[in-house]
Amino acid sequence: MATRLYTHPIFLEHLTPPGHPERPDRLRAIERVLDDEAFSALERVKAPEGDEATILYAHPENFVERVRAAIPESGIVSIDADTSASPKSWQAVVTAIGAANAAVDDVFEGRAANVFVAARPPGHHAEKTTAMGFCLFNTAAIAARYAQKKHHAERVAIVDWDVHHGNGTQDIFWDDPSVLYCSTHQMPLYPGTGAKSETGAGNIVNAPLAPQTGSDLFRDAFLSRVLPSIDAFQPDLIIISAGFDAHHRDPLAEINLTEDDFDWATGQLMERAARHSGNRLVSLLEGGYDLQGLAFSVAAHVGRLMKG
Ligand SMILES: [Zn+2]
Predict the structure, then answer these.
(1) Cα–Cα distance between 188 and 52 in angstroms, integer?
(2) I need a surface site. Which of 30, 176, 214, 221 has the fewest CB within 10 A?
């Protein structure tokens, strides 16, 4: 079975103001690097239309309607200081959710070895009732609940190596021990959450990293906190909130990882997916704002996924 890649042209049409780091060029950079012959075995699939009803797995209806009502007919509107929406943002975010849910179907129904979803907007900062941090809805959280409802997964682990803490995912699963949320992130940094002491129902595992941390401490955090938590939890599915803004070239943070670290971390999670989850592994793009750092990191990540 092959590694699948979900993309869709609509993801380029979620527009942000000029100079905003979360921009369509991020996906163009990923597309270019994955055009290389080394990725010819990657199975490219156009993301299906999403099912809006699945948004309610992670967000209440009045919040969903508030976001829908905020989508402008033209131009770009601010949802908060750094989160915006343009006319096609609704279709983009619903398609991102459709892609993530389809990826879950693929790994449960044996259509793919594993899946990478290259979509935007990202999702991990979106709390139950707050769109923030470039995120409208929490794609990873919706996909985890989708796996539980549609495929009867009892336990889903979400591993978030984006350099920012996934406050939204933590908020949604704070009192839900059927989902393990593990995050490595820089602290202090936006959004300010993610201390070790934030443990939810014992299902939240935060591994904050000081600014200027590099490969060694990142890998230590993975080996000492993230991986043992997964082993204890024995998930039926692993979802990666795959942000690549901990790369040393990234302009938004000061963690100094290289693409080799993302290759390594991917391999570690694939090993855990083999051990506990019948190899079921779905990776969703979150952040990553230096186009070269992002492209090289995604190439390392997807290259490792393809090695099965
Ligand atoms: Zn980030």
Answers:
(1) 35
(2) 214
